[in-house]
Amino acid sequence: MRPYIVGNWKMHGTRAMLSEARAIDRAAERLMKVEVALAPPYTLLHATRKEAALIGVGAQDCHAAEGGAHTGDISAAMLKDSGAGFVIVGHSERRADHAESDADVRAKAEAALAAGLAVIVCVGETEAQRDSGKAEAVVARQLDGSLPQGEAAAAKVTVAYEPVWAIGTGRTPTVEDIGTMHRSIRERLKAIYGEDGAALRILYGGSVKPDNAGELLAADEVGGALVGGASLTAESFLGIVAAAHEAIEA
Ligand code: PGA
């Protein structure tokens, strides 16, 4: 399967950063074995789509409702209209900062699918949950509660496993631990979606950098990466894309 490398710009980026998106898009042409995408903040979505011809462009969140009195919120249909092809839902920063539950995440994911967007559903345990040996159980529960339902869903869903303690910290799980978790996620996906669950991509996220990407991407059942800090410059993000490209060539 083509590896999928997605940059999550979080709350970073003004129009000055469009030059990074352009550079990433241009380089993607020689790295076609990798599917590359960026999720800039809402304010740059339309401009990024216009600047970038090859890469995917998506958003970092959406509201579950189609429209209405929700000041400050953005619906999935609006994202689609501004050029988004996908949306990330359930990122741990949304779950923590905005108290989003699994049910909220599922509602958002289903709204996104209904609007014709693909979705990246994020899951991951906290450090305390890992230390108490509950990481796999926590992630299984998040998958059960957050993934959109229905047979058609599987074709448009990507799962991102992001241990909360690895995000923005420079710490990562071992390759063995990532493999163990990804295999357990794969089993859960098959239980939820049947055979279609075998084909979904499972990304790893959390402190992915150019110098560790090759190793992390080689872990069992890792189909790509969701990248935060290292996606903010074309230079570091393309280092990760190149590592994925090499992994495919190898
Ligand atoms: P990081 O963020 O790469 O900065 O650790 C990953 C993410 O939160 O998606």
Features:
TIM Barrel, alpha/beta, 250 residues, 42% helix, single chain, binds 2-phosphoglycolic acid, 10 helices, 8-stranded parallel barrel, 8 strands, 2 domains
Structural write-up:
The protein is α/β, with parallel strands linked by helices and 250 residues long. It folds into two domains: 60 residues; 133 residues, Alpha-Beta Barrel (TIM Barrel), CATH 3.20.20.70. 42% of the residues lie in helices and 15% in strands. It contains ten helices and eight strands. The chain has an eight-stranded parallel beta barrel, surrounded by seven helices. Helix 5 packs across helix 7. It is globular and about 45 Å long. 2-phosphoglycolic acid binds next to strand 8.
Helices and strands in order:
Layout: E1 4-8, H1 18-28, E2 35-39, H2 42-51, E3 56-59, H3 76-81, E4 86-89, H4 92-97, H5 102-114, E5 118-123, H6 127-131, H7 135-146, E6 157-161, H8 175-193, E7 202-205, H9 210-217, E8 224-227, H10 234-249
Parallel strand pairs: 1-2, 1-8, 2-3, 3-4, 4-5, 5-6, 6-7, 7-8
Helix pairs in contact: 1-2, 1-10, 5-7, 7-8, 9-10
The structure holds 2-phosphoglycolic acid.
2-phosphoglycolic acid binds at residues 8, 162, 167-168, 205-208, 226-230.
